[in-house]
Design a protein that fits this description.
The chain has 246 residues and is an alpha/beta fold. It is globular, with a radius of gyration of 18 Å. Strands 3, 7, 8, 9, 10, 11, 12, 13, 14 and 15 form a ten-stranded mixed sheet that branches. It has a three-stranded antiparallel sheet with strand order 4-5-6. The protein has a two-stranded antiparallel sheet with strand order 1-2. The chain has eight helices and 15 strands. Helix 1 crosses helix 7 (209-224).
Length: 246
């Protein structure tokens, strides 16, 4: 684990860089076969490589992320982690992705706009900005959450999608990147309305600015030399979704 008392090598011993992430969050972080892959994890791999750190990828329960970070079990949370509404809780990198929260429905259902979800069940992942927005009226569409029959809170997006597939819920409110990934199956459709807009950053424990600065400096170098764009293209159909350093 990096406290960053001189990050990098200590003799022949590499410093470890432990990244906490939700393993059910494609395309940012997920399991493929026996390996953890994803946009954020590939960025982290390159950051670790350039600093000669040993990368440790640690799947975490999203509810326990603060405990993991503040206890030193992980060095950062890097996994489509929303800054908005959490600005003062972490040492944040600069925002690196613009992200919107949207509504995903089954392709076969006659639901074409958000208003069609009145009186229906909508799933959200626990402790996410969209959950808070729908419960507190912070969504772009006034009182949208109040029009639902029920907001079903699930531990992760895989569970939410399973609820949607089974018909237990009629929609899932989720990140646009995840929605686009799920639509590849042909079983789902994304509504046009954006529920909320937000930005992703890398979250470090309060006070750990030295590590934050080292990671951000390396990420900016990756943007400048085109490596970050290549990683983005791999996961976003050839698109460069990065906003940092531009």
């Amino acid at each position: 684990m990096i406290v960053l008392a001189g990050c990098g090598q200590s003799g022949d011993q590499k410093k470890s860089f432990t990244v906490g992430f939700d393993a059910n969050f494609p395309p940012y972080g997920y399991k493929q076969g026996s390996e953890y892959v994803g946009f954020d994890l590939d960025l982290a791999r390159e950051v670790a490589k350039r600093n000669n750190w040993k990368l440790v990828l640690k799947p975490i329960n999203w509810d326990a992320k603060d405990m993991e970070l503040n206890s030193g079990m992980i060095d950062c949370i890097w996994n489509g982690f929303t800054i908005n509404g959490r600005e003062d809780k972490y040492e944040w990198s600069e925002p690196y992705v613009d992200n919107s929260q949207v509504l995903l429905v089954r392709a076969k259902d006659n639901i074409v706009k958000a208003a069609d979800l009145a009186g229906k069940n909508v799933a959200v992942q626990t402790d996410t900005p969209v959950q808070k927005a729908l419960n507190k009226g912070g969504a772009r569409h006034e009182d949208l959450g109040k029009k639902f029959r029920k907001i079903v809170v699930t531990p992760n997006y895989n569970n939410a999608i399973m609820e949607l597939e089974s018909g237990s819920v009629d929609a899932v409110a989720l990140d646009i990147g995840v929605a686009q990934e799920k639509m590849k199956s042909g079983n789902f459709r994304m509504l046009e309305e954006v529920v909320i807009s937000e930005k992703y950053g890398i979250g470090f424990a309060k006070g750990n600015k030295t590590l934050r600065d080292a990671v951000q400096k390396t990420l900016l170098e990756m943007v400048k030399d085109g490596t970050a764009a290549q990683i983005s293209a791999k996961y976003f159909n050839g698109r460069d979704v990065l906003i940092i350093g531009k």
